Amino acid sequence: MSETFFPEYPPNISDENLQTLKNLAIDWSLSHGLVIRPPTNLSNNSFVMHAPVSLFPSPFPRKTYDEAIELQPAFNLLFHRLSQDFEFITHAIKEITGVDDFVDNLYKIYLKVKEEGIVQPISLGLHRSDYLLQVPPNATEANILQVEFNTISSSFSSLSSLTGDLHKQSTKYFNSSELLKKDSLPLNDSMTSLPKGLAKAHELYGSPNAVVMMVVIDEERNAFDQRWIEYNLLNNHTVHIIRKTLAEINDQGKLDSKTKALIIDGKEVAVTYFRSGYSPEQHPTKKEWDARLLIERSKSIKCPSISYQLVGAKKVQQLLAMPGIVEKYVTDPTEAKKLRASFAGLHPLDSSPEGEAAVKLAMKNPESYVMKPQREGGGNNIYANDIPPMLSKLSVSERSSYILMDLIQPPLMKNIILRQGELIKGEMISELGIYGIFIGGEGENEVIMNEIGGHLLRTKGRKTNEGGVATGFAVIDSPLLI
Ligand code: ADP
Ligand code: MG
Ligand code: MG
């Protein structure tokens, strides 16, 4: 990829000023809650450290940023429509069940509550659609390609907004590049957009004294990103959040036998907001699965509901790329075309002719692909030379629970990142996420709220395959629109 795609960057700055800027970034982060818990000594909750951040905002083409923003309401609605389609979900999950216990368990809960009758037709989506840039051969402009659409536990909305503020502050000290103009650093309302969605869902539930329950893990390192949601929800909307683990919900939660209200600690839960519940490790025992079933059976508004979580599967993303699928759910052809233009090549790995062809391509040319299981949270994908041995090892039905995606090769940009007090300079890649706030009712066309909720930019070294911040691969950044 052309190394001159982006302008000369980062700003030329003396070593002495760089140290000053580093200390400023650390102290500003500590002063403003741009923090995470340290990796060790988690049982002592009085320690914090600065979040991993980039020292400078990263250049990002304004046109593609605008395009990603514009796509969000259409993606929000598309995923709502998919979530209402029982046959589509069943078709998508069919390939995975029997070989993936985690998806099996989710699907069983989905079937069970469907059979019993859904008592809460409203669902809240706090989504995030993630993109990488790609410059097509011989082109001078980049376009965006979707990496994935997250329907559960989309994180970093609060710390992302704070990182934008950090960059605005640091450019006041060292405005050493003419690129660092005020209007190049876009506003980011992700700090308040998620609380706004939670507040609206709480209002729709219709019980002013009820609370929002955040489903959390013990010893969460990213607790402050979550706490900011709690503070904003209370300060801007007068709604309280309680934090509970799945095990605690199983032990302490009850359903009102008549109304199916979810009651915990004597409080009624209006909205259940999952910041856990997306991976097998978060369900070590039957207790956690029982808690999920209890929540799903309840009248509380779920964020996400089990059907929203299921349509966030990578398998669904691959199916959407098949001919005619997006077009079935998005009736406006121009809009369907725009959504489709953001899709990278996606292939099944099942026993269909397409699946067999994809296996051959991946065996022959593995460095052009990423193989993905139905997992969230980073660190699960298989890249390049690790793909052929994996494919050879798996049975056909095991293989079917993965998808194959064309590797996106984004343009490189130079920046300096700050992690655990250390500066690392080098060639970087950025991934843009756009938050979507959606509230849907029963049926594919009932839309109560459909908004764009701000953005997240994550930046990582060029040689790093994965992209998660929590998993230690990337840092939080903000876009410098060029
Ligand atoms: P998860 O749900 O675990 O976050 P992703 O699909 O987002 O799974 O993959 C994790 C990371 O892997 C992404 O953040 C990105 O950095 C990288 N990645 C995923 N798909 C691709 C792709 N098609 N091309 C290049 N990198 C990718
Ligand atoms: Mg994900
Ligand atoms: Mg991801």
Automatic annotation (TrEMBL):
GO terms for cellular component: cytosol. Its EC number is 6.3.2.3. Keywords: ATP-binding, Glutathione biosynthesis, Ligase, Magnesium, Metal-binding, Nucleotide-binding. Its cofactor is Mg(2+). It comes from the Eukaryota. ATP binds at residues 148, 314, 372-381, 383, 405-408, 431, 458, 460, 466. Residues 210-311 form the Glutathione synthase substrate-binding domain. PANTHER family: GLUTATHIONE SYNTHETASE (PTHR11130). Homodimer. Belongs to the eukaryotic GSH synthase family. This is Glutathione synthetase. It comes from Glomus cerebriforme.
